[in-house]
């Protein structure tokens, strides 16, 4: 079956939502903003950490109440909780950001490593979104190449972000690091998403393997029904 082009508007919405959407960006950015704002004002790690954790929990609960997707919100809660505990236990406000920084670094390495290995992480993430699953690996080489290219883009952006933030972690102070993390939150993410979309738009369309499976299942049911009708006809005198 030839690659099928899905509805672009719906696909674009699903694509953006796969990365958390606008709400996901807010849920990722606001707790860190609350922490650095509070710490800048009162220089109290405990109060600032609790404030950040509280706002993160409120955002997650609001998703639960609205019966919305909670994976991004709860991943944010766990990240903020880990950072808050680490900062309070160590007595160093900069450690509030360390778990997120390590996650960014690890994710950047993962994007580059999987792209180099020919199994780009972005393809694994977006395959289900575009209903192509892993068909791009063997049936759509042009699309696989696009996923490799886009994964390198994500890796480069995340590693560049790490290259900027880690020196401030080691040699700057907590407020500098906090405001830098806020500033480097949404813009690099939007850049990566935009470049990914541009790359994928120019790539071959995804093969809708879900539609293929549904069509095959329907055809099998029709064949089974035909066999039953034929068997019934043979039994008739």
UniProtKB/TrEMBL annotation:
Asked if the Swiss-Prot or TrEMBL record annotates the protein with the keyword Transmembrane helix, the reply is yes
Q: Where are the transmembrane segments?
A: 45-65, 72-89, 109-130, 151-172, 178-200
Q: What is the organism field in this record? A: Streptomyces xiamenensis
Which keywords accompany this UniProt record?
Answer: Membrane, Transmembrane, Transmembrane helix
| Region feature (Disordered) | 218-237
Which Pfam family, just one, is annotated for this protein?
DUF3159
Is the keyword Transmembrane helix assigned to this protein?
A: yes
Secretion signal span: none
Q: What is this protein called?
A: Membrane protein
